[in-house]
Amino acid sequence: xxxxxxxxxxAGGMGIxxxxxxxxxxxxxxxxxxxxxxTADFSIPFMKVTPSSGLSATEVMNLGGVYDxxxxxxxxxxxxxxxxxxxxxxxxxxxxxxxxxxxxxxHDWLTxxxxxxxxxxxxxxxxxxxxxxxxxxxAGGSGNPIVREIExxxxxxxxxxxxxxxxxxxxxxxEYGLLPEKVTVVHNAMEVTYEELEVDASNAYKYLVEMxxxxxxxxxxxxxxTIQKGLTHLLDAAELVVRQQPKTLFLLVGGGEQEEELMEYxxxxxxxxxxxxxxxxxxxxxxWRDSFKIADVFIMPSVSEPFxxxxxxxxxxxxxxxxxxxxxxxxxxxxxxxVDFWDKEKMADQILSLVEYESMRDEMWQNAYQEYKNIxxxxxxxxxxxxxxxxxxxxx
Amino acid sequence: MSKKAVVLYLHAHQPxxxxxxxxxxxxVDHFYFNDESDGLDTNNKFIIDKVSEKxxxxxxxxxxxxxxxxxxxxxxxxxxxxxxxxxxxxxxxVLKSFQEIVATGKVEIVAETYYHSLAFFYSxxxxxxxxxxxxxxxRDVFGVSPTAFRNTELSYNNELAKWADEAGYKAIITEGxxxxxxxxxxxxxxxxxxxxxxxxxxxxxxxxDDVAFRFSDKNWSSWPLSAPTFSHWMSESLHADNGDIxxxxxxxxxxxxxxxxxxxxxxxxxxxxxxxxxxxxxFKTITQAxxxxxxxxxxxxxxxxxxxxTERDLTAWTGNAMQQDFxxxxxxxxxxxMQCDDVSIVADWRKLTTSDHPYYMCTKWFNDGDVHAYFSPxxxxxDAFTYSMNALRDLKLRLLWSQEGRNN
Lengths: 396, 408
Prior knowledge:
The complex is a heterodimer of chains A (396) and B (408).
Chain A: H1 13-27, E1 33-36, E2 48-51, H2 57-63, H3 77-98, E3 104-107, H4 112-122, E4 126-130, H5 134-137, H6 145-157, E5 160-163, H7 166-176, E6 183-185, H8 206-213, E7 217-222, H9 231-244, E8 248-253, H10 259-268, E9 275-279, H11 286-293, E10 297-300, H12 309-316, E11 321-324, H13 329-332, E12 337-339, H14 344-356, H15 358-374, H16 377-392
Parallel strand pairs in A: 1-2, 3-4, 4-5, 5-6, 7-8, 7-10, 8-9, 10-11, 11-12
Helix pairs in contact in A: 1-16, 3-4, 4-6, 9-14
Chain B: E1 5-12, H1 44-69, E2 75-79, H2 81-90, H3 92-103, E3 107-109, H4 124-142, E4 148-149, H5 158-166, E5 171-175, H6 178-181, E6 189-192, E7 199-203, H7 205-212, H8 227-241, E8 245-251, H9 265-278, E9 282-283, H10 286-292, E10 298-299, H11 315-318, H12 321-332, H13 334-339, H14 343-352, H15 356-360, H16 371-374, H17 381-403
Parallel strand pairs in B: 1-2, 1-8, 1-9, 2-3, 4-5, 5-7, 6-10
Antiparallel strand pairs in B: 6-7
Helix pairs in contact in B: 1-3, 1-9, 2-3, 8-9, 12-17, 14-17
């Protein structure tokens, strides 16, 4: 298995997804060696983690991750980033020429070149796992042409492709010209956590706790602040909501190149006081969890979201959710509001009905939580296991 | 016929800077202005110490010598309430050095808002309260009552002049900006339209900026500037339009802080009175100039002018949406704050009215790393906005608690 990150040394949701799916695959008797571009301490009992370079996790994350395609192969840092990417591919090829294995499973574009190299030297089948494409990251544009080229080549060369949602499969078929038969949908899931769901006094957002006592409701979004996430549309809706119900506060967690633009956008609408920007938070820390627990509503209005694990995480922590139709999670979660990312009136309506009707909010969440508990990696691992068998002729 | 006079006016101010105040501080930590981090520019005590050593103490020492040595030498000074408070807290020695120069009887203290705010443009009532608070503080600390007025950032319009006239001030000052002056020269005393007694003095920005901005610029054709040369320029300027006064208005911190000691700025200041008076010139304070000279003309200024940036307007403080939204949120709770019986809420609200807070949010030339960036303690205008807005949110929560009658 080829990946760019694993928790706790990870920057985004992809590392968590890799970890959880490997755990499930391994429990089904699959022997996994996970090759990473950095050296770090892991205590992972269910698979072998192999570093391919002496760099530390921080050093590699500083060079860039799957979300940083924009400057890949550009000047300065972009050049170092692409040279480490090339180095990873060479090291993987070396490992692949001597190791014994049956199949190559590579996650997202940063490992695609390595996957192709490994296939070339070993002759083993290559499966690509697509968590996000350049089409998504540029919100429907073409993205970085060099990265797009890597994706295109690899997708054509791969023996099989996993897409994290039907939505993503459609993108791959439409934008990259693959035959639908070559692409299998493998939905992400979220390990169920048994946390205290009630907002407690120790919640890090003391201000929001106090405001909620006074009848305020909190609408939360968490994720990178980039064009892909559709947040200007959320602010358009927020303006309508605040006009109708001034006691609505919006909490925007996460940094990114669009954060400053969004601050100005909220100010232009005169709703700065209702919109709180928190910046980056560690995805495994208490502040991150408290962001979901404080939520009366979680909203993910992405323009193009291959899956959107964060919405499931929100349900896990007790929030009803609104997701865009343009997301993968909308395929697996039924008890939620769905809206087109551009439809600010409808989005505002949905937010208002959730903040104003507690009964409705509770009902929606209760049902979503039941769904959430049933969405497991089990089903997805079974699908992957079957494809492995088809391509290797081995049925373990 | 009176002698030709230089009106040297220096403005001393430090805000209560908001510390990096996050969303997780709101509701928990109700102190916004108490950063004690080592070497951070949001550490107010650190700044006060730095500016005291570099500017206030050495400048006051030079001024004191000059005031005692030259009978003709006089200075006008404005010092904000927020600076006096910080000197009282941390540098009583520096406050004493200000008191000493005022005690010479040759330093005029100019009235302004206690909090260096733009309240005039948002709430006349609060503006009047802040001017009164400043006058009281000046009486308490210096034992004098101001007779000349300056509004924050030398902001000015006809309405302000009418107010100052009715309030009994003898003089008011602003920027001598060409589009307003038209054919006029800043080297005269003027009368604002629709006023009765008050006189208007306008900054000679060319000569003022030679000292305040260009003094240390090695690419400037006149570098290095000497006192004899500058004195000669002032004579030339007055000769050219047969003017009465040269209004040199600048930040107090020009001496030693904006222009460091090694640029020779203190030697320049030390030599200037001799050069000017030996050529037959004199010095006057703002009020003395207003009383000595007849107005050359009436001046009509509808649109607000300030001494900032090339636009000379308020856009450095209220030009972008974040600044406007912040100011709107701030003043929207004024009446509730005034009715609140918790004095710390009132004081903190007023500290947030200081114009420096929206100034730090200015994005006009953020990318050029210009003067705005130099004067900001934050990495970006967006940080400035986030911290100030968070502080304001917490203040509103305290207001709610106070209205509900519970302490926290």
